[in-house]
Amino acid sequence: MSYRIDVANSDISFPCEDGETVLEAAERAGFAVPYSCRKGVCSECAGDVFDSEGVPERALLCCLRPCADATIAPRKIEKRERIVRKKVDALVFRKTEVSADVTVLQLRLPTGVRAKFRAGQYLQIHLDDGTVRNYSMANPPHQSDSVHLHVRRVPGGRFSDGVLKELAIGGKLRIELPYGEFFFRENSEKPVIFVATGTGFAPVKSIVEDAIRRQLGRPLKLYWGTRHRRDLYLADLAEKWQEEGRVEFIPILSNPHDGWTGRSGLVHLAVLEDHPSLASHQVYACGNPAMTATARESFIQAGLPAEEFFCDAFFSTSEPAPL
Fold first, then answer.
1. How far apart are CA 61 and CA 78, in angstroms?
2. Quick one: 158 and 101 in the same domain?
3. CATH code, 36
């Protein structure tokens, strides 16, 4: 059975099959709406659904499975080329511990297979128990025969503190890609501010390296917030970008050690200290969900147009999805 989904205040409509989410149906019809986790945790896909009397109710479009025709009002919707995803068995090529709790995992794709994705997007790892884990690709798209993942160890985590330990070089992981609306928008000349916490640096790395390779001339500024200096696990790379004049890099520590001479505090506040008005910028925020949510609200209050804020909220899979 199929239901009709209409988008309020537009001429957009598309079918949604029984048991299909509104997000899945929109993608199948060639439309894109903002999303991140696809599991009902991050709220990036939140929008209004109208009842038979036209009263709106908030809903997560990645979880909403209609049982009748419906009218929705997503935060944003745009026509997009239909997404074609690949599911492949990737080879574990290299594991590198870059800090006490972050491992860079490099996966090679099967011979003749290439990964088509946009810088900043993520993939899903399919585990044997039927669950999936989301990880951003840290390499730029032109390195399409492999994918690099920055995996932060979560104590007790099924993948990061379990499967990853047992992965041997030459082993295989089932992956599916690409996913995500967190990618570089090229239809603008505005200066770009990246705001990252922890391994939120991974998709930023992909975007920056892609921009460097393609010689995109927009000013790029990276605020990377962590608790401790050791958590800036690829600071030398970001510093190299700055030395080459590619990116202005501002590391922020929320728990600085004695002798730290850099910036300290919350990363989004550092952005606001330097930019009381964000009316002329684009912002790409990635990492802790509390940071991305607070940054969105604070930056919009500082004049950032809502449509110029792009976000990918990282979350622990152990968090329960809201009803």
1. 15
2. yes
3. 3.10.20.30
In this structure, the strands spanning 2-7 and 78-79 are: unpaired
- 200 and 290 fall within a common domain: yes
Q: What is the span of the domain harbouring residue 61?
A: 2-79
Of 78, 186, 179, 79, the residue nearest 120 (C-alpha)? 179
Q: Angle, to 10 degrees, between the axis of helix 235-243 and the axis of helix 201-213?
A: 30
Number of structural domains found in the chain: 3
pLDDT, tens only, 194-246: 999 999 999 999 999 999 999 998 999 999 999 999 999 999 999 999 999 99
Q: How far apart are CA 159 and CA 168, in angstroms?
A: 14
CA distances from 40 to 35, 74, 122, 314 (A): 10, 15, 17, 12
Count of beta carbons in the 10 Å neighbourhood of residue 150: 23
| CB proximity list for 30: less than 8 A, separation 6 or greater | 79, 80, 81, 82
Tokens for 19? 């048991």
93: left (phi over 0), alpha (psi -120 to 50) or beta: alpha
Tokens at 114, concatenated: 């290439």
Task: Say how many residues make up the chain.
Answer: 323
pLDDT digits (tens, 9 = 90+) for 153-197: 999 999 999 999 999 999 999 999 999 999 999 889 999 999 999
